[in-house]
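ok trying again, last paste got cut off:
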Amino acid sequence: MEITFLIGRIIFGGYFVYNGYSHIKHLENTAGYAASKGVPMPKLAVVGTGILLLLGGLSVITGLYTCIGLVLLLVFLVPTTFQMHQFWKMSDPMQKMGEKIQFTKNLALIGAVLMLFSLAAPWPMLF
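nice, full thing came through this time. structure:
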């Protein structure tokens, strides 16, 4: 059972690490998208959220400071879900569908993060 938990941690945490890296690597594009959604100070917001994703994902992968890492992921996911994916405001059916998919995906990620809080700490180390 520990191996499946480890594989799951690598996949789940890796998702956030990849997206945090992508936020920072593609700062201009990501900040432009954030600005189009009404995010104030979009460049700063993108760098800040990129750091939240990186640290939270690394925490899940390594099993270090898991409570802090999970809080960082929630600090990213909850406001982002409701600010960036407001499908209920869309009139174009394709755009509405895309935003609804992103919204519900983020809700599922929030649920997974909340479930991880129920695990006894410390988690088994990665190596």
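cool. The radius of gyration is 15 Å. The chain has one domain: 2-116.
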